[in-house]
Structure formats: C-alpha cells, structure tokens
Amino acid sequence: MLKSGGHIDRSTQVITVKGVSKSFGELHVLRGVDLHLFRGENLVVLGRSGTGKSVLIKLISGLLKPDTGTIEVLGEHVDELDEKALQQLRLKIGFSFQNSALYDSMTVRQNLEFPLVRNKRHLTRAEINHEVEDVADAVGLLHTINQMPSELSGGQRKRIGIARTLILRPEIMLYDEPTAGLDPITCIEINGLINEVQEKYKTSSIIITHDLACAKSVGDRIVMLLEGRFERQGSFDQIFDTEDERVKPFHDYNFIT
Ligand SMILES: Nc1ncnc2c1ncn2[C@@H]1O[C@H](COP(=O)(O)OP(=O)(O)OP(=O)(O)O)[C@@H](O)[C@H]1O
C-alpha cells in the first residue's frame, strides 16, 4: 500500500540537526550532517553497517555530544540540556531498540505497566489498566496480556516492546533496526505496525534500517547515509534512481523489485 503522506505537517520540524560532526579519534563518523523530521512523518535513515546510524540516534537523544553543530528536538537544544532536562525530554521520545528486551520474570501486563508506574505515579490502578489494555490492543496482542515473554514469538515480543514504548505517549519514535532478525512475514507485520502507530498515535518517527523492504513500506521520506553525510534523500524510487556506484550495490543486494 502506498503511503498518502497526508498526515505530515511540513510547517513543523520536531527534529532539526544542523552541521553535526562526530568523530572517535581518527574515525570521522559524521561529517557535518543536516537532517530534519517533520511532525507526523516517518523518516527512514538507510546506511550500511557502521556508517553511524546508531551514533546519530544517540546524538539526537543526548547520549552523545556532537563535536560541532546543533541538534534541536521538540524545540529544545539537546546539546545544551543538563541531565535532568534531558530525562524530561526523553520521556517524549519512544526508543525501540534491538536490545530493548522485555523483563522475562514479568508478565506482558507487568512489562507494559512498568514505565507508567515509574514515570506517572499519580495514575490510579484503573487508569493504569486502561492504558495497558489500550496499547496491548493497539499492537494486536491484548490476548497475551497475562502471558510471560518466553511464551511469545519473536514478532510478538517486538510488538510488546513497541507497546511498552507507546504507553508513555511519545511524540517521537526512534526505531533502531525494527525488522532485524525477523522472518519476512513478521517483517511485513512490523512494518504495518509502524505505519499504524504513526496514524493512531500521531507520532513522528525516525526508522534506522538497512532492510529496503522496511524502508519502502514505512518511509514517507528516505535519507541515505554515505561516508558520513546524507548524500541522497527523497522517496524510495528517487533514492535508487541513480548511477551512483555506492548506492546501486545496496539495492541489488537487497533484491527489491
Ligand atoms: N562510543 C564509541 N567509541 C568509539 N567508536 C564508536 C563509538 N560509538 C560508535 N563508534 C564507531 O562509530 C562507527 C559507527 O557506529 P554505529 O554504531 O553508529 O554504526 P551503525 O551505522 O549503527 O551500524 P550497524 O548497522 O552495524 O548498527 C563504528 O565504526 C563504531 O565502531
């Protein structure tokens, strides 16, 4: 299904990265990158392994500081915030990371309510139950709520991980390799879920991936990180309509038609 893009507010940028460089010793990972995310948009960041996609996410969430440049998230200059202000800002950002595992000793319900109990202490038990059931339903797994994570499939665990992130109603979602390690059918389901989340929760998202099927399915716009810079941006077809020898093998390798 083609995305309409009708939900995107192009007059508001929820993330603005300007002239950001980041090196580790002699390794120049990002070399003056500019990037923006519009409100309501799904932006895919494509790049080969080791090109700096995770570094970019860490810079946006204030876990790393840039060597040069500025990063604005929801109107705040991330690189100027102290730890307390950063923590407040991070509550508005949902992180779906590859290693954001569920707690094995807790039920699905307990996993989902954990962020609420920790961050929204004024909520009543009834309100917590309502929120938990709402997000479990949104990811299509209300029926698993009393199960243990070990009883779920890999795709179901991923969905519950996303639901746990959604429970704090983040304005921004950052997905790091959402389809990594999943079979093709489950990948399609997760891509569908990312689009449903965008619509239902009005999130603005950055999706980091090297899965082109994922990029094609979820991306309203795609940027490609090449040699420390965003060399290409546009729709999926625009990105790959090139004779650039650094881009073509990427496409061929993924066998996307
Ligand atoms: N804290 C750090 N200290 C030193 N080097 C780092 C640090 N963080 C990242 N790097 C290096 O920066 C480069 C980019 O890393 P990054 O994790 O962003 O890659 P990536 O594009 O996310 O790759 P992958 O798709 O494999 O996860 C790598 O060479 C990595 O070793």
UniProtKB/TrEMBL annotation:
<dbReference type="GO" id="GO:0016887">
    <property type="term" value="F:ATP hydrolysis activity"/>
</dbReference>
<dbReference type="InterPro" id="IPR017871">
    <property type="entry name" value="ABC_transporter-like_CS"/>
</dbReference>
<keyword id="KW-0813">Transport</keyword>
<dbReference type="InterPro" id="IPR003439">
    <property type="entry name" value="ABC_transporter-like_ATP-bd"/>
</dbReference>
<dbReference type="InterPro" id="IPR003593">
    <property type="entry name" value="AAA+_ATPase"/>
</dbReference>
<dbReference type="Pfam" id="PF00005">
    <property type="entry name" value="ABC_tran"/>
</dbReference>
<feature type="domain" description="ABC transporter">
    <location>
        <begin position="15"/>
        <end position="252"/>
    </location>
</feature>
<keyword id="KW-0067">ATP-binding</keyword>
<dbReference type="GO" id="GO:0005524">
    <property type="term" value="F:ATP binding"/>
</dbReference>
<keyword id="KW-0547">Nucleotide-binding</keyword>
<dbReference type="InterPro" id="IPR027417">
    <property type="entry name" value="P-loop_NTPase"/>
</dbReference>
<protein>
    <submittedName>
        <fullName>Phospholipid/cholesterol/gamma-HCH transport system ATP-binding protein</fullName>
    </submittedName>
</protein>
